[in-house]
Task: structure prediction
Amino acid sequence: MAIHLSGVFFNKASISPPVFQHRRRPPLTVFATASAAPPPSSPPTIQIVGGKTASWYGNGNMDSSNAIDSFEEEYDWADLETDLYHWTKTLRPVQWYPGHIAKTERELKEQLKLMDVVIEVRDARIPMSTSHPQMDSWLGNRKRILVLNREDMISSADKNAWADYYGRQGIKVVFSNGQLGMGTMKLGRLAKSVAAGVNMKRRARGLLPRPVRAGIVGYPNVGKSSLINRLLKRRMCPAAPRPGVTRGLKWVRFGNDLELLDSPGIIPMRMSDQSAAIKLAICDDIGERSYDFTDVAGVLVQMLSKLPKANNSILWERYKIDTDGRFGKTFIHKLAVQLFNGDEHQAAFRVLSDFRKGRLGMIALERPPVHSRAA
Result:
């Protein structure tokens, strides 16, 4: 049997297993005992318009060594998800569902009936974890635009991987930076073009055209209000780098032909996927009262130690502390003793803050599922 990798054929028997063995690490950790991890669930199919051309996959000029490195990297990301499942098993569950979200969810479902197009905003560092499991059922066949915000916090390889992932499904994606306004004007044009048929139908019925209605939805603190403010070029919606700032629905007009609905972040009532919940906590996309800082920072240290494009050198360069990648809390304790007189909460907050502000580099915590990329 032969395997084809980017224009190069290999006989399956000629690829020695040790090529990959040096990359696999056992999920041993201070946080949890090992057990069988459940298979990853398939992502929902969504209809999205706009975005960039995929370029990460299918490079016919890639040589055989790069092809094998890319194949290895896919398995590293799969291994990381398995390890993360084990690490979170004995931690305090991350749960956060303030009262205003339940109210907003009810109101948003009613407002969705009035929308011509929905703009779903996700965190580019964790696109899967910031995808609401009920979003597809709420929107039905309504037209959608997917925005991966905070593109400045991930690498070009990460962006290309996600563009390729959605492109293989016939889906395009818009990358944006709500803080600096990158991608926002393109988003405004897309919203109008996607819903152009609305006024065509109105004219056919003898009705006057009206502004296109676009709702902006997503998890807390993914940058929804910042995107609207950048589109409008003025501060119309309250925005701050923490979850829960927007607490009510608000319609704002963009020119004469587009109306935008800003909405509070919505999350599931119960976070059944604790691997995703931990990533929400790491990226500050969920209320800080829902998690223990030391636990979350410890998991982040272990993830950084095993990410294919990161490794222990990032932590060493920043903190001058060694880590073996398996005992994140030990690293936090060492940092606390070195800088904070033994205060582990302050040490954990420093590590999380450094990651959230990009001081550790452009690092994504997710890549598209291996089985989806290989399809």
User: Anything to note?
Assistant: The beta strands are 2-5, 8-11, 117-123, 143-149, 174-176, 212-218, 250-254, 258-262. The two ends are 18 Å apart (CA to CA).
